[in-house]
Design a protein that fits this description.
44% helix; Rossmann fold; 11 helices; single chain
């Protein structure tokens, strides 16, 4: 029962959803994700203030912690610069990647990272990039078949739209969609699926989400990467990487085959 002066849970969830979607920081987020987080907040804690703090914490884990600027605007600017001839594809892509924490970290080992992926996976004709962030901008560093199909999903609808605009300049057939991966794992078939520095994030959103994502895929190769430390650098995430990967692979068709380390990122290769 709500305390005196407090709304019922469904009313509170609706209020939180409207507040979040009207905020400058989160207005571009997938509405389904926001409704889920708002409903969870209203169910788990009582009172507007506590529910609001709970919802903001969950959204920060899923989205806010990775922003080093405005990724959507950075990608849109990259597309405009390429179209106007002010920058080449690689230069514009690198500039945009710096607006997203995970992508910015990977810049230092981008060449080596995708050389290793090629060694494991060959030259794919189709790629599924799950919770992609700005990783589609790394296509110029990937070895893909000409005109490869590239499916990508993110929770930021503004970023999805921006990626579609830059996709016109990429040597792939890019499809970018908005999706709450933690509760809506896509049943995709592709040569390679990329699940990069995403598992710990979606597990914070919904326990077992990483395993459910793997179980839904039908891919010849899956590349899973884990951060070896938190974004703040204070905490290790991959002290037992084999256990983490084995846990998300359990119940799926996939098993770990290879692993490599690049800077702060552990990369695992899974196959059926």
């Amino acid at each position: 029962m709500a305390a005196p002066g407090e709304p019922g849970r469904s009313v509170l969830a609706g209020e939180l959803t409207r507040q979040i979607l009207s905020s400058a920081k989160y207005r571009g987020l997938d509405e389904g994700l926001v409704r889920r987080v708002a409903a969870e907040a209203a169910q788990r804690v009582s009172g507007r203030a506590e529910a609001g703090r709970y919802a903001r914490r969950k959204l920060h884990q899923a989205f806010g912690a990775f922003q080093a600027g405005s990724p959507a605007r950075a990608v849109a600017r990259a597309a405009a610069d390429i179209a106007a001839g002010r920058a080449g594809l690689r230069g514009a892509a690198l500039a945009a990647m710096r607006s997203h924490t995970s992508s910015a970290e990977r810049i230092a080992w981008l060449e080596q990272f995708y050389a290793q992926v090629r060694a494991w996976c060959g030259v794919p004709a189709s790629v599924a990039d799950l919770a992609c962030g700005l990783n589609p901008l790394a296509v110029p560093w990937m070895t893909l078949a000409p005109g490869a199909a590239y499916w990508a999903c993110e929770i930021d609808a503004d970023l999805v739209a921006a990626l579609a605009s830059v996709g016109e300049h990429l040597p792939v057939a890019l499809t970018a969609v908005s999706r709450d991966l933690a509760v809506e794992p896509p049943p995709l078939r592709a040569d390679v699926a990329l699940l990069l520095k995403t598992v710990t994030t979606i597990e914070q959103q919904a326990a077992g989400a990483g395993g459910r994502v793997l179980a839904a895929l039908d891919c010849a190769h899956v590349i899973v990467s884990l951060p070896r430390r938190s974004l703040s650098g204070r905490r290790g995430y991959a002290d037992d990487p084999a256990a983490i990967v084995a846990a998300i692979a359990a119940g799926s068709r996939y098993r770990p085959r290879d692993e490599a380390v690049f800077g702060s990122e552990l990369v695992c290769h899974l196959t059926p």
